[in-house]
Amino acid sequence: MADIDSAMRASAYSGRKNRGSRPDSEKTSTELEPFDPAAHAVKEKAEAISMWIMIALGVLVALLMRYYMMPTLEESQQVLWLLPVLIVATIPTIHRVIVPSSFSELYTKGNWFRASFLYLFTWLALSFALVNPPLADIAAPHLAGAIDIEVVEGISDSSLRGNTYDLQIDQEKVPIVMGLAVRDNVDAQNSTISLTISRKGQVEPIVDVSGTVQEIAETGSSEKFYSVENWQRGMLKNTLTDEQLGPKVAPNPSDIGMAWDICELSGCGPGEYTISLQMSEEGAPWKSGQNSWSTEYKILISQVA
Fold first, then answer.
1. Which domain holds residue 68?
2. DSSP annotation string for 100-123
3. Which of 173, 204, 205, 296 has the fewest CB atoms within 10 Å, measured from its CB?
4. Single residue among 131, 157, 173 that ends a domain in this structure
5. Could you report the average pLDDT of every consecutive run of 10 residues in the chain (305 residues)?
6. Can you point out the beta strands (E) in the chain?
7. The domain boundary residue, chosen from 74, 101, 131
8. Is the Cβ–Cβ distance between 176 and 232 less than 8 Å?
9. Whole-number Å distance between alpha carbons of 84 and 61
């Protein structure tokens, strides 16, 4: 029998023996690498210089795209984003030209990676600010939610596929009211709109209006729109709360709704109707000074037994 003291001595001796038998390559070093405050300060200064160069480059490119390149173009083109992105390839060269060699020699691939993202995010952030309200507006006025048809007796089925609205009626003629709503970032009321509704095979258009959105809305088309109780495409619902936001044709309270009868008082029979729409606004950064948007819809009416 061995007492406790003897057992502990034997265990300690065995542990020292095992540790002493390890090769030098397996021994763990507890020494810390020497810290050179002067070298660290130089590296931090080099990274700070790189950061400010990239911020300045992003600001410069954003300003050139907005105030030099965009006024020479009729509309948005690929060069507006492609050219700024390609500048990323020149970032190492820019550093070597601008930054003294005592600092540029300290840069690694990690520095180029961080500098590239800082430049891109600076350019993107400032570009968004320069082309959106309140500084500018490059988004043209457009329809809030395509077109729609009033729910009335006699329409048995309806569907909107792309720019074609199919209506099936179970009567010889049905009164049809077509509605739409205008939306814009800023001041949709002063946007210019031109609308033509015509029937295939008929020379004269059924509806032919042009002017500002506010002027046309005040002629009675807006009042007619908001007098409609139900639209064929129904209501838009919040996917989270299931709350009804408004009709799909004009779900936002700021949308300006307008509606017209597309047939005579006796109603519409089978046929094809075309809605041609053009909208524009002044003050765009493009060469023309205008944002413009256009589209065309077709309403196909067929009779079912």
1. 37-131
2. -HHHHTT--HHHHHHHHHHHHHHH
3. 204
4. 131
5. 55 53 52 64 82 95 94 87 94 87 79 93 95 86 94 93 94 93 91 94 91 94 94 90 89 94 84 95 85 94 87
6. 142-149, 155-161, 164-169, 177-183, 192-199, 207-212, 235-237, 244-247, 256-261, 271-282, 290-303
7. 131
8. no
9. 7
pLDDT at res. 1: 47
Considering the domain architecture, whether residues 53 and 111 belong to the same structural domain is answered as yes
Q: Of the candidates 247, 263, 268, 254, which has an alpha carbon nearest to the alpha carbon of residue 160?
A: 247
The upper half-sphere exposure of residue 148, i.e. CA atoms within 13 Å in the direction of its Cβ, equals 27
What the block records as the tokens of 191 is: 């946007």
CA angle 206–181–149, rounded 5-degree value: 55
- Indicate whether 75 belongs to any domain: yes
pLDDT, position 284: 80
**Domain harbouring 223, CATH code:** 2.60.40
Rounded CA separation 88/77 (Å): 19
Tally of domains in the chain: 2
Residues 125 and 146 both lie in one domain: no
Helices (H), 31-158: 37-64, 79-86, 91-98, 101-104, 109-131
Whole-angstrom Cα distance, residue 44 to residue 37? 10
Cα–Cα distance measured from residue 184 to residue 138, given in angstroms and rounded to the nearest whole number? 10
Distance CA 222, CA 180 (A): 10
